[in-house]
Description:
Order of helices and strands: EEHHEHEHEEEHEHEHEHEEHHHHEHH
CATH topology of the largest domain: D-Maltodextrin-Binding Protein, domain 2
Shape: globular
Structural class: alpha/beta
Distance between the termini: 33 Å
CATH superfamily of the largest domain: Periplasmic binding protein-like II
Number of helices: 14
Largest sheet: 6 strands, mixed
Strand order of the largest sheet: 1-3-2-4-12-5
Helix content: 40-55%
Amino acid sequence: MTQFTRRGAMGAMGAAVTLPMLAGPALAQTKLTVGALRFTSHAASFVAFERGYFADEGLEVEFKFFQAAQPMAVAIASGDADYAVTAISGGLISLAEKGAAKVIGGALSEEKGIDGQKILASNAAYEAGMTSPAALDGKSFGITQAGSSFHYMGSKIAAAEGADVTFKPLQKVGAVIGALKSGQIDAWSIVPHIAKPLAGAGAAHIIGNVSDYLPDYQVTTVFTSARNAANERAKTQAFLRAFARGADDFNAALVDKTAGDDAAEDMVKLIHKYVYTDREYEKAKAGIVNGAMRINKNAALNMGSVQDQLGWFQSEGLIKDSITTETLVDTSYVDIM
């Protein structure tokens, strides 16, 4: 886990959002910590930070970076982070059941017509005939932890294909990548900014799209501690407003491509400060652009997808049958899709 902080960041103003804007910062110098992964899909927070949208709301933001969803959820519950963006996991749901965490919005989504998450095969598995998800039976599928989004996606894909799949928990995304490259696992599913460079470098093969199995999948959510949701309403709404402005800028530049070529180039350079930082810009650019999936406007949440995910966790015996969407989501903050 690494940290990065910048205070008082100011920049160009983005497109207006329908969430109500404050006339001026009502929360001057309010410090908060935002959990993130170094993924293009977390760009709304990065944009809000770099372009001063958090500062406009009186928020002084520090980032904490993680390598998997579950540790981020634990950090929110313990107070080590205030807000975060990540996939729904068994750990997050369990924390919500204990009254420690709440989902307050939606972020990354699969959307028809937008190139989304890919299903990958290792070179060894591909050469042995696994050239489509229909050949998953008897194969191994990499996940970070049991109950992770990777587990959910892999299970739904396998069920649709009638395949018996072995899931291998490897704890970190980097470890899953290494296992795929070395042939220790046969398959994986991941966002395009990781999948396409792996395939382009000859380290794996793309054999399908997650959206073919999970259309309109709510990939990631915005969440916070139950304490923040209940007792820090002004701060939480301020965070969501700034996040939504960042998402609007990102979508206009790289998803809808309505902001022009210069704006797209500026956006990629901004994201490169956080994603593929170990690569030169020209080598990182394609991977970042390839990761440009929709981030929901106004942090809207696809409740149908959330319900489907809860149903899967329950069917696998990973959470209690008594848990409902109300357990997980504070709908008082949510623009429901």
